[in-house]
Amino acid sequence: MISAYIDRFEGELAVLLLGDEMKKVNFPREFLPAEVSEGDYLKIDISYDKEATEQAEQEALDLLQD
């Protein structure tokens, strides 16, 4: 789990500060919950989607074989 702080909004982007080191990233505002605002904290959970990856790899292989 990554802790993120909403530093500010710049148009359609949210400037997030991630983790203890407060690494700055721009994130599309449309993917954030509607009720958040500047100064709020978020929890971000990133996980590997093995099934989707394998499916995409198979689709690419199928295209190469045609």
Give a structural overview:
With 66 residues, this protein is of the alpha+beta class. The protein has a single domain (2-65), classed as OB fold (Dihydrolipoamide Acetyltransferase, E2P). 24% of the residues lie in helices and 38% in strands. It is built from one helix and four strands, in the order ββββα. The chain has one helix spanning 50-65; strands spanning 2-10, 13-18, 23-28, 41-44. Strands 3-2-1-4 form a four-stranded antiparallel sheet, with no helix packed on it. A hairpin with a 4-residue loop joins β2 and β3 (23-28). The protein is elongated, with a radius of gyration of 17 Å. It starts with a strand and ends with a helix. The model has no long low-confidence stretch (mean pLDDT 96). It comes from Selenomonas montiformis. This is DUF3006 domain-containing protein.
pLDDT averaged over residues? 96
The secondary structure category is alpha+beta
CATH architecture descriptor text: Beta Barrel
How far is it from the N-terminal to the C-terminal residue, by CA?
Answer: 42 Å
Shape: elongated
Portion in helices? 10-25%
Beta-strand percent range: 35-45%
Helix and strand element order: EEEEH
Tell me which oligomeric state these chains represent: single chain
Rg from alpha-carbon coordinates: 17 Å
Give short descriptive properties of this protein.
four-stranded antiparallel beta sheet, alpha+beta, 4 strands, OB fold (Dihydrolipoamide Acetyltransferase, E2P), 66 residues, elongated, 1 helix, DUF3006, single chain
